[in-house]
Amino acid sequence: xxxxxxxxxxxxxxxxxxxxxxxxxxxxxxxxxxxxxxxxxxxxxxxxxxxxxxxxxxxxxxxxxxxxxxxxxxxxxxxxxxxxxxxxxxxxxxxxxxxxxxxxxxxxxxxxxxxxxxxxxxxxxxxxxxxxxxxxxxxxxxxxxxxxxxxxxxxxxxxxxxxxxxxxxxxxxxxxxxxxxxxxxxxxxxxxxxxxxxxxxxxxxxxxxxxxxxxxxxxxxxxxxxxxxxxxxxxxxxxxxxxxxxxxxxxxxxxxxxxxxxxxxxxxxxxxxxxxxxxxxxxxxxxxxxxxxxxxxxxxxxxxxxxxxxxxxxxxxxxxxxxxxxxxxxxxxxxxxxxxxxxxxxxxxxxxxxxxxxxxxxxx
Length: 364
Known about the structure:
Blueprint: E1 8-13, E2 24-30, E3 35-39, E4 47-49, E5 54-64, E6 66-71, E7 77-81, E8 87-89, E9 93-96, E10 100-104, E11 110-114, E12 122-125, E13 129-130, E14 145-146, E15 152-158, E16 161-166, E17 170-171, E18 179-184, E19 190-194, E20 201-203, E21 207-208, E22 215-219, E23 225-233, E24 236-244, E25 248-249, E26 259-263, E27 269-274, E28 283-292, E29 296-300, E30 304-309, E31 316-320, E32 330-331, E33 337-339, E34 342-346, E35 354-360
Parallel strand pairs: 1-3
Antiparallel strand pairs: 1-2, 3-35, 4-29, 5-28, 6-7, 7-8, 8-9, 10-11, 11-12, 12-13, 14-15, 15-16, 16-17, 18-19, 19-20, 20-21, 22-23, 23-24, 24-25, 26-27, 27-28, 29-30, 30-34, 31-32, 31-35, 33-34
């Protein structure tokens, strides 16, 4: 899988910490990049500019025939068996011979939906047994959630509308709109979507959340959540595609889809998809981790040099002497040295009275 964070706004960084020190360069967007302004006419006091961007590192996990994965803070993943029933853990093996739509708590408890002879489904816990009665769970309308304290939230039809219900607090919502996909974290915060009213995402502690999040999937203890939404390219819109509310879309490709999903406190997200999108026969679990953009630093050694971490080995330095459109970036020649976990590259060649530097994985 390729890194999908293709387009991030170009940021000009200066030594000022004020918000006004950053501006967007119209017509130019790049991934995993940032600039440093170097006054080449004299010694420049060392400063560090941090990028507020990054990229997703995506891994195909060796779990095949999977659907609706969930991940906890220990890194354990559970999923339902694709095109069948049964719940499986990456650590403990098979947890149940039947059931769908598992949700894994940080305590290790798994709650899933199962049938008991009626038209609907009910919720079952791997530690406490059956949690609901009467076939009240309609997965075609709403998913559910569980936290490490054993509190489960789900939606049930009440007085003509789908309302959020907690196994601890009872009925949570009462307004005359339909609610769906409640998620809960270990701090007790519940978020849910709602139809027929705006905004469409509500938090039990923060109130209405601005933005458009049509299908929330999971909430961690740091208030980050993941959700499904459409991607639009020209006049074509496709879904489902998984997003983080902090870092945006994971795979920025309208022809690659992600189903189900969850998030833990590290911001690691999981979902399922076919390994080969053009031949969707066997589905695997995929995992995404957010990698902050590396930091490029100007240092004196005693001359001027650029420094960046060696764990950003796929990057190289580019520079330009003018940020007026059209900007022409050039590869900064030379072979960086390695020392104490950092690359160092001397600024020995004449680049003009001022230059802008960035790290990039793109051309040239």
